[in-house]
């Protein structure tokens, strides 16, 4: 959505038209999770894969044969310098990849939904603006016709008006 559309139709016009955004369409207090799904599932998959193989798990979720101790003695994958590295089985890595794919798909779907809701609200604002314009033109036209009628508030001699119109018709003025 262009920035000018966002400013004009989502900020200024609703304020001028006394509109508020429906609650079900927009919730500014909703927060997105900043945690990456692979980080969330890393320790739980370590624990579950160890349990699947019948191996005991330490308090930190590591296999007994994984290196634990001084972190300077072990190699670490990027971004996990504080935790000892214990490689996951291929099935766990595939599960993490699948979860990352699903998470990214859901994130994109949520962004599309938010964009669609923004456009729906723009349509509501334009609809309300056109309603006000229609109401103003209709009211102005009606008042203009009523107030411009020449004999609405005056007493009129009908016979004099008929004679004038008859003379005008006979002279070919109509």
Describe this structure in words.
- The chain has 174 residues and is an all-alpha fold.
- It has a domain at 88-174.
- It has four helices and no strands.
- Helix 1 packs across helix 3 (90-148) and helix 2 (37-52) runs antiparallel to helix 3 (90-148).
- The longest helix has 59 residues, at 90-148.
- The chain is rod-shaped.
Summarize this, please?
The chain is an all-alpha fold. The chain has helices at residues 3-16, 37-52, 90-148, 158-170.
Name some characteristics of this structure.
about 170 residues; mainly alpha; rod-shaped
Q: In one word, what is the shape?
A: rod-shaped
Distance between the termini: 58 Å
Helix content: 55-70%
The value of Rg in angstroms is 37 Å
Describe the SSE topology:
Layout: H1 3-16, H2 37-52, H3 90-148, H4 158-170
């Amino acid at each position: 959505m262009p920035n000018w559309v966002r400013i004009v139709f989502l900020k200024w016009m609703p304020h001028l038209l006394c509109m508020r955004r429906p609650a079900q369409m927009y919730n500014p207090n909703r927060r997105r999770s900043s945690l990456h799904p692979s980080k969330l599932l890393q320790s739980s998959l370590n624990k579950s894969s160890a349990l699947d193989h019948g191996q005991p798990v330490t308090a930190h979720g590591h296999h007994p044969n994984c290196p634990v101790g001084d972190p300077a003695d072990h190699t670490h994958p990027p971004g996990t310098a504080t935790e000892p590295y214990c490689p996951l089985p291929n099935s766990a890595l595939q599960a993490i990849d699948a979860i990352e794919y699903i998470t990214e798909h859901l994130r994109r779907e949520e962004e599309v939904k938010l964009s669609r809701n923004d456009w729906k609200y723009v349509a509501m604002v334009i609809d309300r603006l056109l309603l006000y314009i229609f109401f103003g033109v209709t009211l102005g036209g009606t008042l203009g016709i009523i107030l411009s009628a020449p004999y609405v508030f005056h007493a009129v001699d009908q016979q004099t008006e008929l004679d004038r119109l008859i003379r005008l018709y006979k002279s070919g003025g109509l």
